[in-house]
């Protein structure tokens, strides 16, 4: 949220990142994550004009930022009150902190559960990301019950970047993987024999894909190119939103 505010004030992702002490790549990763979780564009690049290459917040982002500022004020007041309890209840507070687990998965997508195919051992969840992107997850039947999942449930899908394979469309026939999406490469960031690709599957919704540099050379991949993203249903982890 600090990054959104800094972008709004500076009109630039790079300047906003410097303001709060983030690298340019970390800032773009944060923007991609926020866009994915919101399901709509929050930050748009400016094209042309005196501020070409800059960026601005969408109206939706400004609404979220305003709401956050109100919530943050209430949160700070809450922290002042709970600090008085911290010394007396420190062990219990540590347990509560453990519940706020974070994940290392590079991809976090907000989704709606459309349908469930039940079986004795595993359930197949048919989810929708954004306006029209289908993603299928395979989870233990016990997890479906524990999370109380049903059609209409709001979810967050977690997918490791290394679990996604890239391919040309002509090479993706007759594969067993349940998820085969189409996307456009926005960026290729090489790092010590590997590369992280940012691929747009819908406007404002992206997936991070980790592949070897050799694979990129073999496939001849470049930015702005359309590719297939392939991953198994079992590679999708599911969390339920309140």
Q: How would you summarize this macromolecular structure in one to three sentences?
A:
The protein has 242 residues and is α+β, with helices and mostly antiparallel strands. It contains seven helices and twelve strands. Helices cover 34% and strands 34% of the residues.
List keywords for this structure.
alpha+beta; OB fold (Dihydrolipoamide Acetyltransferase, E2P); 242 residues; Arc Repressor Mutant, subunit A; five-stranded antiparallel beta sheet; 12 strands
Secondary-structure-derived class: alpha+beta
Report the uncertain regions. none
The number of distinct structural domains comes to: 3
Kindly report the average pLDDT value. 87
In order across it, which strands form the biggest sheet?
5-4-3-6-12
**Morphology:** globular
What's the CATH H-level homologous superfamily of the largest domain?
Answer: Winged helix-like DNA-binding domain superfamily/Winged helix DNA-binding domain
Main sheet summary? 5 strands, antiparallel
Name of the CATH class of the largest domain: Mainly Alpha
CATH architecture of the largest domain: Orthogonal Bundle
Number of strands: 12
What is the CA-atom radius of gyration, in angstroms? 20 Å
Strand content: 25-35%
- The name CATH uses for the topology of the largest domain is Arc Repressor Mutant, subunit A
Please write the string of helix (H) and strand (E) elements: HHHEEHHEEEHEEEEEHEE
Amount of helix: 25-40%
Calculate the terminal CA-CA distance, rounded to whole Å: 21 Å
Give the helix tally: 7
């Amino acid at each position: 949220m600090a990054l959104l505010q800094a972008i709004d004030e500076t009109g630039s992702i790079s300047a906003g990142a410097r303001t709060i002490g983030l690298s340019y790549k970390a800032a773009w990763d944060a923007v991609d994550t926020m866009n994915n979780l919101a399901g709509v564009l929050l930050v748009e690049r400016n094209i042309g004009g005196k501020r070409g290459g800059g960026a601005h917040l969408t109206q939706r982002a400004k609404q979220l930022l305003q709401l956050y500022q109100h919530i943050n004020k209430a949160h700070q007041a809450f922290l002042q009150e709970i600090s008085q309890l911290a010394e007396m209840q420190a062990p219990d507070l540590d347990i509560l902190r453990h519940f706020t687990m974070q994940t290392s998965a590079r991809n976090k997508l907000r989704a709606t559960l459309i349908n469930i195919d039940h079986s004795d051992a595993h359930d197949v969840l048919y989810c929708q990301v954004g306006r029209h992107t289908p993603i299928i997850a395979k989870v233990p039947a016990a997890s479906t019950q524990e999370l109380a999942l049903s059609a209409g449930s709001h979810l967050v899908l977690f997918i490791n970047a290394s679990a996604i394979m890239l391919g040309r469309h002509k090479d993706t026939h007759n594969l067993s993987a349940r998820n085969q999406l189409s996307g456009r490469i926005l960026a290729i960031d090489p790092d010590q024999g590997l590369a992280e690709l940012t691929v747009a599957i819908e406007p404002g919704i992206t997936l991070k894909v980790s592949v070897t540099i050799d694979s990129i050379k073999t496939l001849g991949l470049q930015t702005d190119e359309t590719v297939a993203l392939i991953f198994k249903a079992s590679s999708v982890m599911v969390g339920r939103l309140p």
